[in-house]
Inverse folding.
């Protein structure tokens, strides 16, 4: 007897499994199709493994400065094998958690590659299923670098890095974006000599320029060699190492490293799905959807990386909920006004809304408020005062356009900033919120006060 489902979800990453659960919560009979492991790239190759490694590096940093806190911790050693074992244990635990969640909602997991035979039929290996409603959540794949052959040993990708068995003595990271910088911080923290080659004029080019410049300065002071406006001209194996020829436009430079890590980004996974058989419209390598997450084919939805950037797990999950609700007869629209962006470098970066540069480009009359963690009481007690909070405001309406944070626990602090922007909070309203003391979050309030030079814990502005 042929099985029938109200909703078929293709892909069990953060967007896919969230969509499947919401559809089941609404009473739908749901199946989720996954050719690899539950959790997708985020859980198995990206967000979670890297954060587990970052946590180990952060612990190492704490131990190295323990004497500042009156704690003697001598002969601290790195057991890289144990670090990687812990990372894998965390991934397996969360993967099992997703499996149990899906089971609790009676969601059937079908292993295999989904392929559209027509707008109404999907084939998975030797199974054929009729489509009532379908949500495509196939995620993204690593972007290839023209002329560079990945060998998985000396020249590797982000997927290979999280499977390393030893700490490289040196590595060149090609790409100064989020992925490259997180790995740079991990391996510099573990003792590797790290060089970054970024083709653009700045690292983290999509972030506020002041924030990215500050991070570059911090990492450079730690000994990281960050080369902007620099491309890879040639890569050769030489005596068991990798010789890389770099071109900065002005100079040609050769460097010798143990590993080269290619982290130039990701692209939507639209291949081998038979989208053309279903008549699903794609543009610029991504599936096109409306604000209900529906494609041009009625009843077929797409969410997450497969519809294009920003490539964020929480964006995919939000889209998954919208798609599932619409698939089950609700009328729900996606709201992109306040998507937080989190970068787990050391120190962390988090932002929501637009940057100062974007605001000026859009024609806003911009007011800026800033507050450094070096004068925040809680930051001083933790011994980590690096960074600052920056608030971007429309001077004419006092609307908060963006909040940007560089520093300890920035990725946790950003949620309140997201809430403020999502609810249309003005700078005056934010200034009237009572923040607890002593907390890192007070820095947001102080930065908001500084928009009009009223920050309590900054010296009097000379012009006031």
């Amino acid at each position: 007897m042929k099985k029938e489902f109200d909703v078929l979800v293709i892909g069990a990453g953060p967007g896919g499994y969230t969509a499947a659960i919401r559809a089941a919560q609404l009473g739908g009979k749901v199946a989720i199709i996954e050719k690899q492991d539950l959790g997708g790239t985020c859980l198995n190759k990206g967000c979670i493994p890297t954060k587990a490694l970052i946590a180990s590096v952060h612990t190492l940093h704490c131990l190295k400065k323990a004497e500042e806190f009156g704690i003697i911790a001598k002969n601290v050693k790195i057991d890289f094998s144990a670090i990687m074992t812990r990372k894998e244990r965390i991934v397996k635990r969360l993967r099992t958690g997703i499996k149990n969640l899906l089971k609790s909602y009676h969601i059937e997991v079908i292993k295999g590659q989904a392929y559209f035979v027509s707008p109404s039929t999907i084939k998975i290996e030797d199974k054929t299923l009729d489509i009532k409603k379908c949500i495509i959540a196939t995620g993204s794949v690593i972007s290839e670098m023209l002329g560079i052959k990945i060998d998985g040993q000396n020249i590797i990708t982000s997927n290979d890095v999280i499977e390393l068995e030893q700490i490289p003595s040196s590595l060149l990271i090609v790409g100064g974006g989020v992925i490259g910088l997180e790995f740079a911080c991990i391996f510099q923290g573990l003792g590797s000599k790290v060089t970054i080659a970024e083709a653009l004029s700045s690292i983290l080019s999509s972030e506020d320029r002041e924030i990215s410049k500050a991070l570059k300065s911090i990492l450079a002071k730690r000994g990281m060699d960050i080369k902007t406006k620099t491309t890879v001209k040639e890569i050769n194996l030489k005596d068991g190492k990798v010789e890389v020829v770099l071109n900065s436009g002005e100079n040609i430079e050769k460097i010798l490293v143990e590993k080269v890590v290619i982290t130039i980004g990701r692209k939507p996974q639209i291949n081998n799905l038979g989208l053309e058989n279903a008549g699903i419209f794609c543009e610029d390598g991504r599936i096109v959807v409306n604000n209900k997450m529906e494609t041009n084919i009625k009843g077929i939805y797409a969410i997450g990386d497969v519809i294009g950037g920003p490539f964020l797990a929480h964006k995919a999950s939000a889209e998954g909920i919208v798609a599932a609700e619409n698939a089950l007869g609700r009328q729900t629209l996606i709201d992109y006004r306040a998507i937080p962006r989190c970068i787990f470098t050391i120190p962390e970066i988090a932002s929501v809304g637009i940057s100062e540069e974007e605001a000026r480009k859009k024609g806003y009359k911009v007011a800026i408020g800033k507050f450094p963690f070096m004068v925040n009481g809680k930051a001083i007690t933790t011994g980590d005062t690096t960074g600052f909070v920056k608030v971007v405001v429309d001077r004419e309406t006092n609307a908060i356009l963006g909040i940007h944070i560089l520093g300890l626990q920035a990725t946790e602090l950003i949620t309140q900033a997201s809430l403020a922007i999502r609810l249309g909070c003005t700078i005056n309203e934010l200034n009237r919120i009572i923040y607890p003391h002593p907390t890192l979050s007070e820095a947001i309030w102080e930065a908001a006060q500084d928009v009009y030079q009223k920050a309590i814990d900054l010296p009097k502005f000379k012009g006031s």
